[in-house]
């Protein structure tokens, strides 16, 4: 069946040659916004992440939960790009597409005639997004890039984790593949910008997204502290390098998060915990002083906070309109009434009736809301449908392509 999207990108055709996470994450965003996304997979193998488990779905596909997080609102076709006839099918699909997304190694698609230069020659309005570890140029261009490596190389792990010398101190990666995910976000933003430019000029363009570039750009205040103030960023655990106090504290029955962003909040919080005179101490009168004397401040605050029950302190902070909370386990936040009220979790049915749960698109568009049309597909399940619908191939032609191993249907 054809897409019946009503979102802001309805009618935009995306050909997704990417796999794993950064590319699929970007194309899922476009699909959520209404674009028709065709995911191209290798016959007999499919996207690598289909086997990144456990856990796996207990159905015929045995697809992993990991794969399900980044592939809704897509149709899947399985085509052998290394076969000249398979590459020709992809060229024909690209000629009808608005956007191509790929994450092959630099130059990897040129030998199949599927690079930007080849495809844009017949489709000058094509927007072609390449996602790699290190970009299309520079001394590292030929290296493979993986999220864990990028987190370390970018400097992110040097500011993540407990401080050296503390129990458990040392570099630590973020608990989600943040470099992949944010590169996917930047790729989606860039493709939308290129679409807007094409509306004015009629011309597409090549977008070069690199995981390392993205992650370095996200160093944000930490990099600015160094570039503009000479401050050497370091690991501080749950503390903030600039704002104090902005960290976790131990109550009698567990930890609470205290995130105070200005002097007024600091004065109100210290009064709440029974230390109303603390802000009058010359060391703590402003944030700069609290930053210089953070250990002394923590030593003064910890005994007062330790007398509280965590739920009572969080409730008191909420009543005083002070930012605070608890560290949730993932099951707790997924069951939180705020998440339910925001409608962030969706149940979708796959073509065989298997239900899967997905986390939805987080922004609310008042006039063109996101819709959830398709569960993450089984590998190649839409091959015949797409080839017939988009390229006009007959059943006999498709059957021959299957027999020759050029295309395949569901694994």
Q: How would you explain this protein's 3D organization?
A:
One of its GO terms (molecular function) is CoA-transferase activity. Keywords: Transferase. It comes from Edaphosphingomonas laterariae. This is Crotonobetainyl-CoA:carnitine CoA-transferase CaiB. It holds the Pfam family CoA_transf_3. There is one protein chain. The protein is α/β, with parallel strands linked by helices and 411 residues long. The chain folds into 2 domains: 13-217 and 339-408, Rossmann fold (3-Layer(aba) Sandwich); 246-328, 2-Layer Sandwich (formyl-coa transferase, domain 3), CATH 3.30.1540.10. It is 36% helix and 13% strand. It contains 16 helices and 12 strands. It has helices at 22-32, 65-68, 84-95, 116-122, 147-153, 178-201, 211-217, 220-229, 263-272, 287-292, 294-306, 310-319, 330-334, 337-342, 383-391, 395-403, and strands at 13-16, 36-41, 74-79, 99-102, 127-132, 206-210, 246-250, 255-259, 324-325, 345-349, 355-359, 407-408. Strands 6-5-4-1-2-3-12 form a 7-stranded mixed beta sheet, with helices on both faces. It has a 3-stranded antiparallel beta sheet with strand order 7-8-9, with helices on one face. Strand 10 (345-349) and strand 11 form a beta hairpin. Helix 1 packs across helix 6 and helix 6 (178-201) crosses helix 7 (211-217). The chain starts with 12 loop residues before the first strand and ends with a strand.
């Amino acid at each position: 069946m054809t897409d019946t999207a009503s979102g802001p990108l309805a009618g935009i055709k995306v050909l997704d040659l990417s796999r794993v996470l950064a590319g699929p994450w970007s194309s899922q965003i476009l699909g959520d916004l209404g674009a028709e996304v065709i995911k191209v997979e290798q016959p007999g193998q499919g996207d690598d992440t289909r086997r990144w488990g456990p856990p796996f779905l207990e159905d015929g596909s045995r697809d992993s939960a990991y794969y399900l997080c980044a592939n809704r609102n897509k149709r899947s076709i399985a085509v052998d790009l290394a076969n000249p006839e398979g590459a020709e099918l992809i060229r024909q699909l690209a000629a009808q597409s608005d956007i191509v997304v790929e994450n092959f190694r630099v130059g990897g698609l040129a030998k199949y005639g599927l690079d930007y230069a080849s495809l844009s020659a017949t489709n000058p309005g094509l927007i072609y997004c390449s996602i790699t570890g290190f970009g299309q140029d520079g001394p590292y261009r030929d290296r493979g890039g993986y999220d864990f490596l990028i987190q370390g190389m970018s400097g992110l792990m040097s500011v993540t984790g407990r401080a050296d010398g503390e129990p458990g101190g040392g570099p630590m990666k973020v608990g989600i593949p943040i470099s992949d995910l944010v590169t996917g976000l930047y790729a989606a933003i860039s493709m939308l910008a290129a679409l807007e430019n094409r509306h004015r000029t009629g011309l597409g363009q090549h977008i070069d997204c690199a995981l390392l570039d993205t992650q370095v750009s996200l160093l944000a205040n930490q990099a600015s502290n160094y570039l503009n103030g000479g401050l050497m960023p370091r690991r501080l655990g749950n503390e903030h390098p600039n704002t104090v106090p902005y960290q976790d504290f131990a109550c009698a029955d567990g930890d609470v998060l205290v995130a105070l962003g200005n002097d007024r909040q600091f004065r109100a919080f210290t009064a709440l915990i029974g230390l109303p005179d603390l802000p009058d101490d010359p060391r703590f009168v402003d944030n700069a002083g609290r930053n210089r004397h953070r250990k002394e401040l923590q030593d003064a605050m910890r005994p007062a906070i330790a007398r509280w029950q965590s739920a009572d302190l969080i409730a008191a902070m909420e009543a005083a309109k002070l930012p605070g909370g608890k560290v949730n386990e993932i099951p707790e936040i997924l069951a939180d009434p705020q998440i339910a009220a925001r409608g962030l979790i969706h149940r979708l049915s796959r073509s065989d009736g298997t239900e899967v749960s997905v986390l939805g698109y987080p922004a609310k568009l008042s006039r063109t809301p996101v819709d959830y049309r398709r569960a993450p597909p089984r590998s190649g399940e839409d091959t015949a449908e797409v080839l017939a619908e988009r390229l006009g191939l007959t059943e006999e032609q498709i059957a021959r392509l299957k027999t020759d191993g050029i295309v395949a249907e569901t694994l």
